[in-house]
Design a protein that fits this description.
By secondary structure, the chain is α/β, with parallel strands linked by helices. The protein is built from 13 helices and twelve strands.
């Protein structure tokens, strides 16, 4: 009898975690590696949020809670959706998990059957396809091209929908590209979805508050209210609030779906960390005056990286609307050889050589479903970004 589940044969470990781990290993060997792989703000959690977590500990709020969130947090989430997105939800329509990843996983585990399809625009966050597969479904990819800002069109979405389509999984601003869909672009997609009432919408809004310049965030159920009854709107406190390690994600949607997700969570983790929940209450209800200055720093870093990468031979880097990633094309580098003699046959080969020869860790584009590209997270210091970009320029200058 085989020990391991056959389901595991369908999935792979997270490439972003693998890159971070490899960079850490090289640093342990004394190498001066600059890691640009992890999607994690370098800002500390704001003091008033940390104080709320400390207060929860000191007041004894350390016991089990309701499976999918304390009432106070659910109320704060409802208020957030009304305040930021003009969406009305009740606490019974809200689910809180240990990070956005668990919320998405719960939704797929609760709804997918063998043969069900989930449409995923590419490039995509590396975990989406594997969570679909773990839930028993089949990912269906729709590629957004560089010349369209990595965004898919309404015609592409319509062509991908079949009778087996159960979900359309949508992420804007995007990980890995930072691309943000405008209201009109999103309305074109929701118009397609209105014609297919069997398709549900799962929207990953984790980078909502990391929207730059003239870009204005919007979410599907806000753009098209007729989709409200078949949309699960997911968000969390990880990115804009610099709370990645606190592990709080949440979603709101139709009550029967939320109840099914609660059942899944009740037999896996039960409640998220109590202390983190109380900190998240403060994050959502308290002051947000730190977001704008943080975004100003992200904009400065984004501009630094985009300008520097576009000066590198063989690289083309578009300007993203949000998040804290860039996703440059390296089509001009494929087929060339590095100064150390490595043939660049793919974006994975490029990223491997860049790490080994230039000591810069990035994530190769194939991991996100669109090649030849790579992803940089610019959620680190200006000095580290400048040094990394200088190394990338030297690396590209050496290609022949």
């Amino acid at each position: 009898m085989k020990l391991l589940s056959a389901t595991l044969d369908r999935v792979k470990p997270s490439p972003t975690i693998a890159v971070t781990t490899r960079a850490q290993e090289l640093r342990a060997q004394g190498r001066d590696v600059i890691g640009l792989g992890a999607g994690e703000p370098d800002f500390d959690t704001p003091d008033h949020i940390k104080a709320a977590g400390i207060a929860a500990i000191q007041s004894g709020k350390t016991k089990y809670t309701a499976v999918d969130g304390i009432p106070e947090l659910k109320q704060a989430i409802c208020a957030k959706f009304k305040r930021d997105n003009d969406l009305d939800y009740t606490p019974a329509q809200v689910s809180v998990g240990s990070g956005g990843k668990q919320v998405i996983y719960n939704a797929f585990m609760a709804t997918l059957n063998p043969g069900d399809e989930v449409i995923i625009p590419a490039p995509y966050w590396v975990s989406y396809p594997d969570m679909v597969k773990l839930g028993g479904g089949e990912p269906v990819f729709v590629a957004g091209a560089l010349d369209r800002g990595y965004k898919i069109t309404a015609d592409q979405l319509a062509a991908a929908i079949t009778p087996q389509t159960k979900w359309f999984l949508f992420n804007s601003p995007s990980n890995p590209t930072g691309a943000g869909y405008s209201w009109d672009e999103l309305k074109a997609l929701t118009d397609v979805l209105l014609r297919h009432p069997h398709v549900w919408v799962l929207t990953d809004d984790m980078y909502e508050h990391l929207a730059f310049d003239d870009y204005r965030f919007c979410t599907p159920a806000q753009v098209e209210p007729q989709l409200y009854d078949r949309t699960l709107t997911m968000n969390g406190v990880s990115k804009a609030y610099a709370m990645t390690g606190w592990r709080i994600g949440y979603a709101a949607g139709p009550q029967p779906l939320i109840a099914a997700m609660r059942k899944v969570q009740s037999q896996s983790t039960s409640n998220p960390c109590t202390i983190s929940q109380w900190a998240a209450v403060e994050a959502l209800n308290g002051t947000h005056d730190f977001i704008a200055p943080n975004n100003d720093m992200f904009i400065r870093r984004r501009n630094l990286v985009v300008d520097a990468l576009n000066a590198c031979p063989g690289i083309v880097c578009p300007m993203p609307e949000g998040a804290f990633y860039v996703y440059p094309s390296i089509a001009g580098c494929i087929g060339k050889t590095t100064a150390a003699g490595t043939l660049i046959e793919s974006d994975e080969a490029f990223a491997t050589a860049l790490l080994d020869e230039a000591e810069v860790a990035v994530v190769f584009g194939a991991a996100f479903g669109l090649s030849p590209h790579f992803r940089i997270s610019y959620a680190t210091s200006d000095a580290a970004l400048q040094t990394a970009c200088d190394r990338i320029r030297t690396f590209c200058d050496g290609l022949t």
